[in-house]
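Moderator note: this is an archived Q&A kept for reference. The question asked for a predicted structure of one protein chain; the sequence and the answer are reproduced below.
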Amino acid sequence: MRIPYLTAAILLLASLTAKATPSTQIWIPSTDIQKYKSLHLNIDNYVAAQKEPGGLWKAPVFVAGPTIGVLPYEKIQAEAGFDLMRSGLPSDNYPFYFHAKVGAPEGAVFPGSPALAIGGYNFGLKREVTDQNIIYGLAAKNLPAIGRLSAGYYSGNKKLLLDENGKKADTGVLLSWDRVLSEVSDKLWAAVDYQGGESPLGAFNFGVSWTFAPDTSVILGYDMYNNVKVAGRDTFTVQLDINLW
């Protein structure tokens, strides 16, 4: 494959830095799973924080879709869903992406065990265009006064997840910290997370959330990409989460 064509393909992938979202932190998946039959709606927006080289603004990305809990068990849970993604680029011709996750809450495997989750996201419908096919595993543990620490690893489609030189960048670590800031308010939550790798998915992110009602919250966050040559410069994110039932 010639490098100019590769570069065009990588720039197209930059439109996919937002993700078909399972239950997440700011950017990476979390070990949280929707309860059985509960229906969750996410509406996420990513807007450029600064101009790209040459004075252009990166197109905003809009992601919205439902996630539903699908298992009626206490110690093993699962969710599945899909999203509609729009970014103003040719990939919008194939806007649907799917995700699913199965896992166990803390203490389910043995007393004191961490929460565990295995899942996947960005399962697009167009071969070698939107099928990033990310598979991941995560473990998380709540620590008194510190909050929840999560760690994991992911792997995706090596034909699509590339760096600026066309080399595969399809794997990386997943790390996060999150905590309800009850010292201020039980409605206030904060998180910092990181996805490794030099593809457009690699990023360091931080933000806060405010719960306006028992079933509605808004996250305000900031995204700093590991490789600006393929993902572009930083973005702001606003994410609305609603539990419909």
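Archived answer notes: The helical segments are 3-13, 228-231.
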